[in-house]
């Protein structure tokens, strides 16, 4: 290890030290809200991208959003993709570094090096934050995704926590963008399903919703809800945003939850609208939307009631859903993606 790397690790260990955050959380008593399990209420969190200067400031931001959801009766709360980015505010001068051009190979390498070095420290704060939120409020929390190293490679990974604060599972992003490929992000290779007391849940990440097969596979594995944490780096346009979760929900007949990171910091401009979706026939206005955020910017907490049993009965009676030519798919689908 060179002198620079050694000094950097000492600095990061100090800036991301866990003792102050753990002390801050240890003084909190579990909050009790009247959370009814029937009907089931879920929450999609829209988070404004703000660079936080301390881990406690970050924790309080995330906790305040969860509290809003819980007051409205939510027992499952989903945060967005790239939820680690606000923690880069702990690094002095980071906004100037963010002004770099991520399209160049040189800077792509720099981005990868930064994620590889800082990732483990960010992960510590992330785990402490969302584990504590789940435990304090006795809810299920999909904490959004973070870019961290694992076994020498860099992945975008989302994690799920249970009411006891323990990790239930994780999901690596399966489809990466050209920019992510530039700085060496690796795609995951397995879509996982988790069986929770109220239903089966999958939570692929952002770009994964662009592809029909992701939701189709989730449904075939038994998923009732598919959660998509997003961090879209593009100017917001309503119909462009529809390319993701809304059509996937209609095709696969699942409940869809979309959490969104929004806001501009330096070269980063994230846009989107958090929302909760269902098959058209199961929504009051027959538009496929149970609830969607009013704006594509700023913090918002979206909650809605979902009826898993009604969804399952609806799927059983849906002739189109089961009208599939499996022989054709097995013969040609694999060849389409070679």
- H/E element order: HHEHEHHEEEHEEHEEHHEEEEEHHH
Quaternary organisation: single chain
Supply the CATH class: Alpha Beta
The fraction of residues in strands falls at 15-25%
GO molecular function: hydrolase activity, acting on carbon-nitrogen (but not peptide) bonds, in linear amides
Keywords: Hydrolase
Pfam family, one: CN_hydrolase
Protein name: Nitrilase
Short description:
The chain has 338 residues and is α/β, with parallel strands linked by helices. It has one domain: Carbon-nitrogen hydrolase (Nitrilase/N-carbamoyl-D-aminoacid amidohydrolase), CATH 3.60.110.
Question: What is the element layout, followed by pairings?
Answer:
Layout: H1 3-15, H2 19-26, E1 40-48, H3 55-71, E2 76-78, H4 94-98, H5 105-137, E3 140-150, E4 153-161, E5 167-172, H6 178-182, E6 194-196, E7 199-202, H7 212-220, E8 225-230, E9 232-233, H8 238-241, H9 245-252, E10 255-265, E11 268-271, E12 275-277, E13 289-292, E14 300-306, H10 308-317, H11 319-322, H12 326-336
Parallel strand pairs: 1-2, 1-10, 2-3, 7-8, 8-10
Antiparallel strand pairs: 1-14, 3-4, 4-5, 6-7, 9-11, 10-11, 10-12, 12-13
Helix pairs in contact: 3-5, 7-9
InterPro entries: Aliph_Amidase/BUP, C-N_Hydrolase, C-N_Hydrolase_sf
Protein name: Nitrilase
Domain CN hydrolase: 40-308
């Amino acid at each position: 290890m060179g002198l620079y790397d050694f000094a950097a690790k000492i600095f990061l260990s100090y800036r991301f030290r866990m003792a102050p955050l753990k002390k801050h959380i240890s003084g909190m008593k579990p909050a009790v809200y009247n959370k009814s399990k029937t009907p089931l209420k879920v929450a999609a969190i829209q988070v404004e991208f703000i660079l936080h200067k301390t881990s406690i400031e970050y924790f309080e931001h995330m906790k305040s959003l969860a509290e809003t959801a819980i007051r409205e009766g939510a027992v499952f709360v989903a945060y967005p993709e790239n939820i680690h980015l606000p923690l880069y505010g702990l690094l002095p001068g980071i906004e100037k570094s963010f002004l770099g051009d991520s399209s160049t190979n040189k800077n792509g390498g720099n981005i990868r090096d930064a994620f590889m070095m800082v990732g483990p420290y960010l992960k510590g704060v992330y785990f402490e934050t969302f584990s504590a939120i789940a435990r304090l409020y006795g809810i299920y929390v999909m904490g959004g995704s973070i870019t961290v190293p694992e076994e020498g490679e860099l992945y975008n990974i989302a994690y799920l926590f249970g009411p006891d604060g323990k990790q239930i599972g994780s999901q690596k992003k399966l489809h990466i963008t050209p920019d992510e490929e530039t700085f060496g992000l690796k795609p995951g290779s397995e879509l996982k399903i988790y069986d929770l007391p109220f239903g089966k849940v999958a939570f692929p990440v952002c770009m994964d919703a662009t592809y029909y097969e992701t939701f189709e596979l989730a449904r075939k594995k038994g998923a009732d809800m598919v959660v998509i944490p997003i961090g879209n780096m593009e100017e917001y346009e309503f119909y462009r945003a529809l390319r993701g979760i809304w059509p996937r929900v209609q095709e696969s007949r699942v409940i869809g939850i979309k959490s969104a990171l929004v806001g501009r910091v330096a070269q980063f401009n994230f846009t989107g609208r958090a929302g909760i979706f269902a098959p058209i026939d199961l929504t009051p206005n027959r538009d496929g939307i149970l609830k969607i955020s009013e704006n594509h910017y700023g913090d918002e907490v979206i909650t809605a009631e979902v009826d898993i049993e009604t969804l399952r009965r609806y799927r059983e009676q849906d002739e189109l859903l089961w009208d599939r030519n499996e022989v054709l798919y097995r013969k040609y689908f694999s060849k389409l993606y070679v």
